[in-house]
């Protein structure tokens, strides 16, 4: 509902006149009702029945045969309007973060009674993409470490982890500690934990009357006759049977009327299947990557490739890297699971076909920090978002939002950054020519980025074979296998034989999310049904179009961030709160011209060459978006005092508003500073996770013992953890004069991740006894980094034989270039029993 404090004449009898405080901006302190949930609404309903103006309006609607719910409800002389946050109209979306944060912003950051939001949710749970239930786990061994069954399988596996840290996957005024507990918050939460976060957010800030579960919006019509525009929304109630795909043709259509409408229905609406010649004939062996949600799904898919068949992943972005890595891990686990026998053939091969090169970035990357007092540079390992969105990376002065066609100079700058962060060794993995076409600056293509911890080392070890090109045809045969024709960048063609199955990691389209809008609205929004990059032409940084000012968009762009959703919701609400009671939203000539210029820039970007000037994400400057929104809305970024005047990263908690959640804001900010400045004497969990990831693959080793020297090749082969207590696991095997095996495991503890080494039964590859654990010591980075090199040390004790293990890991970027392990008798400086030096095997 909306109380238009600034535009209308105050009435002495108005409830608004009894407010004990006044605010100069819409973001003043909120009023929290002391009534039970729904109490205020019941009072308004009673008052509306007594109000003459409400009765007159009801009679008018009856005359038009349109009466269902009053267009407006009158609370004495205070105008009360309703708002729709449509988060429902698409097959796989629920009341996700964009709809929830919009409703919460409207309710809690304006004087009580300003808005009454209603979220229409097609499903019977909130969460959007994110499941809200943890899957059941049972004891089991071998290939499947534990059950992943879920009571209602959604689009995301509940155990999948986010690829950005908890500080970015959050809203400003709900700390993860309030959801999972002070000691149980992982840096990269699992999907079910994200669902739990959204559930907690809704419980804290929204009532059941706001979130209408099981309500599917089927049509929305904008009516402009008679003055101020209004929205007619038609919806149907869905039963549990509807959710299982049963017939819904006979559902009764309900109608309601609203003053504003927000499309928060999600951008990734329907899996996209490219038009490839012959693919339909291979449909029984082709799936979209969104179908591979669980280990059971992977197992059924990999079975198609036994007897040496090839599993082909088609696509060049996030989902392709995830799908190829998941298949490679599954095959590696088949080879190396406890109890598996040694086989030389018969396992599937994994191929990845991408139309362009891309950077693959692990979740922890090195970040250079400069001490302002001494000028000393040190390196620390941070979650990639905390490093990449550090304000220190931007030029001095106000941070500007970069939007528009990508220039060659911008591409070169991005490529230089990733080369410096990832390191020479890591960036040499896979097909060359990242971002380059022919080596000329004018043909630089915008860099694409995928996030993945295991992909690069799977490629290095040839567990994934990569090819840059486009699939031109799929030729199925009677044998059940197919031949895939590939067009290479130079217009040459090759064919890939013996293809057993295909994963289409080709992304999603946003178009079904707009299907409930009428043609006149879509036309005003310059809707392009074939352009998933810019399906609409919007202004207000993707929130509005001035031609339809009473309609808004939150999170409706490729690659939405939670902080941007929150800012978009605030921007919409601030604009709508100043609406005139008679004419609605009125923009000044200056505002209209600014919005028109912004839409012109969107059209220019939409029409730019998609290969040379379109970035991966149209609104990809997260740091610039957050900072520019904050300036527009008058929000001051919270400082981080413990960082010694360094600006620190952009995260939602630093852009909070006055109101509820103050304690949560401080909790989040303190946790952020703790992770940016790990306690002395103990390295952060990030270091342990980065070491473990970088051990993957093969190493040449030389071992010096008291009376001999031996050498060979050692291999860290990933497999599913044989115990649910661990996050990841390697089977370590040596070839050479002596055959040695062990198991390396890592726990992703929120407080202190630890690598442990276990002795192995050589017959069935089962870990039988703990040898020692690695305690990571303080990082030993040089004061000035030399070509991205730095050293990390660790130590461990094996009390059963009174030995100490000292480790030295030499990093270049995100990769370990060499490492060594020295075993000595205790106490410290005891007799050296062995020293083993490892150097990376470089496949050719």
Automatic annotation (TrEMBL):
Gene3D superfamilies: FAD/NAD(P)-binding domain
Keyword Oxidoreductase: yes
Residue stretches of biased makeup (Basic residues): 1-12
Keyword Lipid biosynthesis: no
Renumbered residue ranges of the record's region Disordered: 1-36
Superkingdom, natural source: Eukaryota
Keywords of this entry: FAD, Flavoprotein, Oxidoreductase
SUPFAM superfamilies named in the record: FAD/NAD(P)-binding domain
Domain named FAD/NAD(P)-binding: residues: 249-329
Gene Ontology molecular-function annotations: oxidoreductase activity
Record-given protein name: FAD/NAD(P)-binding domain-containing protein
Species annotation: Aspergillus hiratsukae
Organism lineage string: Eukaryota, Fungi, Dikarya, Ascomycota, Pezizomycotina
């Amino acid at each position: 509902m909306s109380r238009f404090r600034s535009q209308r004449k105050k009435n002495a009898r108005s409830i608004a006149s009894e407010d004990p405080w006044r605010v100069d901006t819409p973001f003043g302190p909120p009023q929290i009702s002391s009534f039970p949930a729904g109490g205020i609404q019941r009072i308004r309903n009673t008052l509306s029945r007594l109000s003459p103006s409400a009765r007159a309006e009801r009679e008018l609607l009856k005359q038009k045969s349109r009466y269902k719910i009053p267009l407006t409800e009158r609370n004495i002389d205070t105008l009360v309007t309703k708002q729709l946050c449509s988060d429902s109209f698409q097959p796989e979306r629920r009341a996700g973060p964009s709809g929830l944060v919009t409703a919460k912003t409207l309710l809690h950051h304006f004087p009580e009674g300003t808005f009454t939001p209603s979220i229409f949710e097609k499903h019977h749970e909130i969460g959007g993409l994110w499941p809200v239930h943890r899957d059941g786990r049972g004891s089991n061994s071998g290939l499947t470490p534990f059950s992943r069954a879920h009571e209602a399988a959604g689009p995301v596996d509940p155990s999948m982890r986010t690829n950005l840290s908890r500080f970015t996957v959050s809203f400003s005024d709900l700390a993860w500690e309030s959801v999972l507990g002070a000691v149980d918050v992982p840096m990269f939460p699992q999907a079910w934990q994200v669902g739990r976060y959204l559930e907690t957010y809704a419980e804290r800030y929204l009532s059941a009357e706001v979130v209408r579960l099981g309500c599917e919006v089927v049509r929305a019509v904008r009516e402009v006759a008679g003055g101020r525009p209004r929205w007619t929304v038609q919806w149907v109630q869905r039963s549990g049977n509807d959710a299982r795909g049963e017939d819904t043709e006979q559902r009764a259509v309900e109608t309601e009327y609203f003053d504003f409408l927000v499309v928060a229905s999600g951008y990734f609406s329907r899996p996209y299947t490219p038009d490839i010649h012959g693919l339909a004939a291979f449909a029984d062996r082709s799936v979209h990557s969104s179908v591979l949600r669980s280990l059971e799904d992977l197992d059924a898919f990999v079975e198609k490739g036994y007897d040496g068949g090839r599993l082909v992943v088609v696509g060049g972005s996030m989902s392709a890297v995830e799908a190829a890595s998941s298949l490679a891990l599954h095959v590696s686990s088949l080879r190396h699971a406890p109890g598996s026998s040694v086989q030389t053939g018969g396992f599937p091969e994994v191929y990845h076909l991408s139309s362009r090169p891309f950077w693959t970035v692990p979740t922890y990357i090195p970040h250079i920090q400069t001490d302002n007092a001494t000028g000393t540079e040190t390196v620390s390992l941070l979650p990639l978002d905390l490093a990449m969105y550090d304000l220190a990376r931007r030029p001095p002065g106000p941070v500007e939002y970069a939007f528009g066609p990508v220039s060659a100079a911008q591409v070169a700058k991005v490529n230089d950054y990733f080369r410096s962060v990832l390191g020479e060794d890591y960036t040499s993995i896979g097909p060359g020519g990242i971002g380059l076409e022919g080596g000329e600056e004018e043909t630089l293509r915008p860099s694409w980025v995928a996030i993945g911890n295991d992909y690069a080392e799977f490629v290095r070890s040839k567990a994934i074979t990569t090819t840059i090109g486009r699939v031109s045809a799929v030729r199925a045969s009677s044998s059940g296998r197919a031949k895939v024709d590939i067009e290479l960048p130079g217009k040459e063609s090759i064919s890939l034989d013996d293809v057993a199955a295909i994963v289409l990691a080709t992304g999603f389209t946003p178009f079904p999310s707009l299907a409930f809008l009428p043609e006149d609205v879509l036309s005003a929004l310059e809707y392009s049904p074939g352009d998933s990059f810019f399906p609409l032409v919007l202004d207000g940084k993707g929130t509005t179009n001035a031609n339809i000012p009473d309609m808004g968009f939150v999170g409706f762009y490729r690659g939405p961030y939670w902080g941007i959703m929150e800012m978009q919701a605030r921007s919409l609400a601030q604009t709508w709160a100043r609406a005139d009671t008679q004419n609605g939203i009125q923009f000044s000539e200056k505002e209209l011209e600014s919005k028109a210029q912004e839409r012109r820039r969107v059209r220019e970007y939409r029409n730019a060459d998609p290969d040379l000037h379109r970035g991966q994400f149209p609104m990809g400057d997260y740091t610039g978006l957050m900072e520019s929104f904050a300036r527009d809305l008058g929000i001051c970024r919270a400082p981080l005092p413990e960082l010694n005047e360094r600006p620190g990263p952009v995260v939602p908690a630093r852009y909070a508003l006055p109101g509820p959640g103050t304690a949560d804001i401080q909790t989040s900010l303190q946790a952020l500073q703790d992770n940016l400045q790990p306690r002395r004497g103990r390295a952060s969990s990030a270091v342990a996770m980065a070491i473990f990831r970088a051990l993957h693959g093969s190493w040449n080793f030389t071992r010096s013992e008291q009376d001999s020297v031996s050498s060979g090749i050692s291999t860290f082969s990933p497999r599913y953890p044989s115990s649910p207590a661990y996050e990841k696991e390697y089977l370590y095997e040596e070839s050479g004069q002596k055959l040695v095996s062990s198991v390396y495991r890592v726990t992703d503890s929120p407080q202190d991740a630890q690598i442990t080494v276990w002795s192995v039964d050589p017959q069935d590859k089962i870990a039988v006894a703990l040898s020692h654990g690695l305690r990571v010591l303080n990082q030993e980075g040089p004061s000035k980094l030399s070509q991205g090199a730095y050293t990390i040390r660790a130590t461990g004790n094996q009390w059963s034989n009174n030995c100490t293990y000292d480790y030295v890991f030499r990093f270049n970027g995100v990769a370990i270039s060499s490492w060594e392990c020295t075993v000595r008798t205790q106490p410290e400086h005891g007799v050296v029993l062995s020293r083993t030096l490892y150097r990376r095997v470089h496949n050719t």
